[in-house]
């Protein structure tokens, strides 16, 4: 059974860096069969694909490419998201996903 679990701070101050980690069990993040992605949903809005890793290559949404960094830790079977210079508009529920399997999501609020 494949499971993904997000972890990280629930509150980040404006201008700081948001850092989240997704821990994967039941599959390897080096698998070339799936995307390993970050997706978010701001309050009252739809899902926004932020970026992901596919076959070892990292892709980003053009709207976030200048602030986002996605990396993987193969030793711990984790992948991570860093989002720099956050503003209150980055407040959202953040999900990691394999496409067909999603984490439960984690609320991140940007506020001073």
Number of helices: 0
Tell how many strands the DSSP assignment holds.
10
Order of helices and strands: EEEEEEEEEE
Mean pLDDT: 97
Q: Which oligomeric form is depicted? A: single chain
Rg is: 13 Å
Tell me the span between the first and last alpha carbons.
Answer: 39 Å
Structural class given helices, strands, pairing? mainly beta
Strand content: over 45%
As a percent range, the share of helical residues equals: under 10%
Shape: globular
Structure description:
With 112 residues, the chain is mostly beta strands. Helix content is 0%, strand content 50%. The chain is built from no helices and 10 strands. The protein has strands at residues 3-7, 11-12, 18-25, 35-41, 48-54, 57-60, 68-73, 78-83, 92-97, 106-110. A 6-stranded mixed sheet has the order 2-10-9-4-5-6, with no helix packed on it. A 4-stranded antiparallel sheet has the order 1-3-8-7, with no helix packed on it. A hairpin with a 6-residue loop joins strand 4 and strand 5. It is globular, with a radius of gyration of 13 Å. The mean pLDDT is 97.
């Amino acid at each position: 059974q494949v499971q993904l679990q997000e972890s990280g701070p629930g509150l980040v101050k404006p201008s700081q860096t948001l850092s989240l980690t997704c821990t994967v069990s039941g599959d390897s993040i080096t698998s070339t069969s799936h995307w390993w992605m970050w997706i978010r949903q701001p309050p009252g809005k739809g899902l926004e694909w932020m970026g992901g890793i596919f076959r070892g290559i990292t892709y980003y949404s053009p709207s976030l490419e200048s602030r986002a960094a996605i990396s993987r830790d193969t030793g711990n079977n984790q992948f991570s998201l860093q989002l720099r210079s956050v503003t209150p508009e980055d407040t959202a529920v953040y999900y990691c996903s394999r496409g067909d399997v999603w984490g439960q999501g984690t609320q991140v609020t940007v506020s001073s």
